[in-house]
Amino acid sequence: MDDLRELAGGVRAKARNSWRIGITGPPGVGKSTIADALTAVIRERGHTVAVLAVDPSSPFSGGALLGDRIRMDRHGTDPGVFIRSMASRGHMGGLALATSHAALIMDAAGFEYVIIETVGVGQSEIEIAATADVALLALAPGMGDQIQAAKAGVMEVADIFVINKADHEGAGRLAADIRSVLHAGRAERYGWMPSIRRTVAATDEGIADLFDDIVAHREHLSSTGLIEVRRREQSEHLVRELALELVRSAIDKFAAAPDSALPALADRIAANDLDPWLGARLLLQSVVSQADL
Ligand SMILES: Nc1nc2c(ncn2[C@@H]2O[C@H](COP(=O)(O)OP(=O)(O)OP(=O)(O)O)[C@@H](O)[C@H]2O)c(=O)[nH]1
Ligand SMILES: [Mg+2]
User: Fold this and answer.
1) Distance CA 235, CA 230 (A)
2) Which of 69, 119, 131 is nearest to 89 (CA)?
3) Is 32 exposed, middle or buried, given 0-12, 13-18 or 19+ CB atoms closer than 10 A?
4) What pTM was computed for the model?
5) Residues 250-268 pLDDT 10s
6) Whose CA is nearest to atom 14 of ligand 1?
7) Residue scoring higher pLDDT (186 or 150)
8) Cβ proximity of 101 and 6 under 8 Å
9) Which residue of 31, 33, 54, 83 sits with most ligand 1 atoms within 8 Å of its CB, as the best mutation to test the pocket?
10) Using N-to-C axis directions, what is the helix angle for 124-131 and 226-256, rounded to 10°?
């Protein structure tokens, strides 16, 4: 990821031309299948596309890579398609940095669309929405209760709800559940009422309509000028993540130094001689004053 950071630094001055489509959702809901089908539609419409599958839970790129490769096989020889899987756990800055750096490079390489798939665990759904120009939340029938329960945060950041596996029973009920949650809260995002689209990604059904939704959302952001607001918020998110990363690595460096004051601080905390919060403040002060930021 350090290489990625360096590489991304080199392309930063260039204007952004690509449109970032984030796809998130629970494991197995069909995100990779949607990405694959969407790639086919985007190619049919004459655009190039890069697909990044990010696995926030795995430090290895083994299994996910293989799975995604297999499913994306129909685009394997197409020079207008670029496909990569990456793992973000244990890497510098996690998902937000990994994806925004990778997306920046894809942009510089001239891809018109960049699809970023992340499995919805922990904070990753919010992260992906903060990085993407359009955030797709994929769900499948039978997950209605899950929506009611814990997904409020994610519901708020989705621009398009994709009800995939609409060939399974319960798609109508799920759509109704989503609608009721949307109506209960402040649903509009950047002046856009999230659309709800049913798909059977495995047979490409509904995917062309899904792309039309993506285009309509894009036109909305462009014509209202709200894209500028969104991009600024993306930058704000990114710079905060970067700052956190700088602090984290400065702390690591501080702790690893041979003359580190950390063991002495820890001894005092262990002996109840120092409040841990005060210790943390002292640590932060020392780190920031000494750090080569
Ligand atoms: N019946 C049905 N099956 C589907 C549909 N879309 C995908 N599948 C199947 O669902 C399974 C999971 O699909 P994936 O695309 O790998 O799902 P994913 O969300 O990317 O999974 P993770 O990346 O592991 O979280 C595969 O066996 C797909 O063939 C659909 O619309 N209908
Ligand atoms: Mg997948």
Assistant:
1) 9
2) 119
3) buried
4) 0.84
5) 899 888 988 888 999 999 9
6) 30
7) 186
8) no
9) 33
10) 130
Give residue ranges with CB within 6 A of ligand 1.
27-33, 119, 164-165, 167, 200-202
pLDDT value at 132 more than 60: yes
Task: Judge residue 270's burial from the number of C-beta atoms within 10 Å of its C-beta, 0-12 exposed, 13-18 middle, 19 or more buried.
Answer: exposed
Distance 32 CA to ligand 1 centre (A): 7
pLDDT value, residue 56: 59
Q: 177: pLDDT confidence band, cut at 50, 70 and 90?
A: confident
* Helical pair 262-270 and 276-290, crossing angle rounded to 10 deg: 170
Instruction: Give residue-wise pLDDT tens across range 227-253.
Output: 999 999 888 888 888 888 888 888 998
Rounded to the nearest 5 degrees, what angle is found at the Cα of 201, between the Cα atoms of 195 and 205?
75
What is the atom index within ligand 1 of the atom nearest the CA of 166? 31
Atom of ligand 1 nearest to the CA of 205: 31
pLDDT > 60? residue 148? no
Q: Which amino acid is at 214?
A: I
- Of residues 74 and 57, more confidently modeled: 74
**Spatial separation of the C-alpha atoms in residues 210 and 23, rounded to whole Å:** 12
Q: Hunting for tokens 């290489």 — which residue is that?
A: 3
Q: Where are the alpha helices (DSSP H) in the chain?
A: 2-11, 31-44, 63-71, 94-108, 124-131, 144-150, 152-157, 171-184, 207-224, 226-256, 262-270, 276-290
Using the structure block, give the residue that is written with the tokens 């659309």: 195
Q: Are strands 160-163 and 81-87 parallel, antiparallel or unpaired?
A: unpaired
Burial class (CB in 10 A: 0-12, 13-18, 19+), 253: middle
Q: What is the pLDDT of residue 62?
A: 41
Residue nearest atom 10 in ligand 1 by C-alpha distance: 30
